[in-house]
Nucleoside phosphatase family-domain-containing protein (Immersiella caudata), 692 residues
Amino acid sequence: MGKKSRWGVILDAGSSGTRLHIYQWKDPEKARKKASAEELRSLPKLVTEKKWTKKIRPGVSTFGEKPKDVGPEHLNDLVQHALKYIPEDKIQDTPIFLMATAGMRLLPKVQQTGLTREICSYLQQNTKFSLPDCGLHIQVIPGETEGLYGWIAANYLLGGFDRPDAHKHGKGHHTYGFLDMGGASAQIAFAPNATEAEKHANDLKLLRLRTLDGAPAEYRLFTASWLGFGVNRAREAFVEALQEVYVETHSKELPDPCLPKSLRTTLDGTVVTEKKPNEMTLVGTGAFQECLELTQPLLGKDKPCPDSPCLINGQHVPAIDFDVNHFVGVSEYWHTTHGVFGGKDNEAYDFTTYLKRVKDYCSRDWSAIASSIDSREKNDLRNAQEACFKASWIINVLHEGVGIPRIGIDKMPGFNVSHGALEHDKDKGFLDPFQAVDKIDKVEVSWTLGKMVLYAAGQVPPKSGDDTYPVGFGSNGPATIPHDFQFAGSTWRAPGATGNQTIDEWEDYMGKAKGTPGTGFFAFVVLLIFVGYFFRKKDRRMRFYGKVNSFMRRSRRPGSPRKSARGFSGLTNKLFGRSTPYERVMEEGEANQFELGDVDDDDYSDSSDGSRYGVGASGSGSGARASGLATPKVNAFDPLSVPFGFSALDRSGLVVRTESRERLVPHLQATGRRSRAGSPTRLKSPLVPPQA
């Protein structure tokens, strides 16, 4: 893509580690010039490579009590990895995000705040990446948002957005559901059928994207998250339940049907090679059917359901129509159905086949399993000992929790799909109720991709400069921009005010202007010194004043108002001292000749909304081009359209900002939206006048 490309960096701060992702896409304004009709109806095309990712352990959440160490001991390696691949001249134009998930959600709020502030400060002080707003770029995202981003990524890669005609699942449905299972939480996101969408409209999220031709694309989907229902947290809950079952026996050995036969571990999962007195251990029995039965109660299906229907733990979820809702599962859904159980990359999930593989594996003696694994690969050993429990948890969540039909056992839905969908999806299992995936067309299915797709879509100029439908997501309802709307964090570049000047030429100009900031100031200082020297004596000042004032009176036409004389008199009063009593009385006596000049409203509106300095300009033609990283235009008359607290750093390095939500629209504080005014670093521009 070369000079026409855009880059983005995002750090997925999970419970077990942090993974760096780099994405690249063609600048939307340039991409649309040579795009075909089909490409214009599609979202921006993002690319990534395997070498652009890097994961380190442990997770960011482990620095909760030592936040000062998170930068040098955790983030530095990831940042240095990113710098290997992003061109140096693109760094300042490249946004960097760190979004933490379930591991950070479990920390106390005070530790969450301390960590996010320290992370933002470290990145701002030690990198040149674009990070204009800490609250937007560095945050702990809710599970529902994580699920929404994952839903975008899955449908983006499968083609559900760009080619809806080739993915007709029946009943006007062409998108796929999304399931994510991590270590600490689990997520679900899907678009209900038309009947359920109307019935549960208040439970849905409005998602708005923008295709390359500038047209808005709207979707309404349901998202939910279960914190504490990831595989690692579920395992902890299971071990606690085992202790309660055997507490009355006073035994130090607890039979565990979810461990391979004869495997001995401590309660936290460490393999026991030598038995110690008074140390409680778990002893594997390899009875997988019993394991399934003991893990099922952990789903909380017996919890009260105040808003029916419910799935796991009393959580309300609209009824799922498996005739049209086909789900893809990522993370542990993939690793646990493949990995040690030998599933092939493109093999469709089949419950009967999978169950047989798991039972055969778990009934084997641990010594036989361990001997087949390289003892130096600690992660492989750990995965092998945890595989049986994870398999039981995945099976229960899928079929007892979500209700995914079991192929070969349960009644299967009748699929009404287009011929194109059959050709594209049949062999890969995407027409089944559930299919575990890791990559689609060699691209990893990660929620981070969904976040960056949303960001890139926000850079596409809307049709005719219409900002009525900004890119982002919020509550579903009649409002064009919901009160809790979360903007994409990017915007298009507005047309410039320099005639035929191109974007690159304008940026070159701004770069040169930025490179010589001291020249004008130096000249101004020299001028002040000269004036001060010339007028250092009072008699010289008064002679100069008399000559100029006499000239001004002679040059005035008879009968004309004394605007010029009075204006100059005010200036001379400040420079030379007060005028004579005669002059003062004369001006006051002619006050009736004065009138207020016309005020150019456009000049003031330009400066107040920031458009002439590139803040979300939408084609006013009155200022510099906004960077692709600038935030949406501030409209002081429409508080719901403002991404409060956003600021922006343009590509030439000039800093611009909008005011905080509390300052611009105080009455919105009652909505419960979080202000970003507390961000550790607020970049401010000397160009923007203070708000009244």
Notes: The mean pLDDT is 76. Residues 252 and 280 are 4 Å apart (CA to CA). The chain is about 35% helix and 15% strand. The longest strand covers residues 216-227.
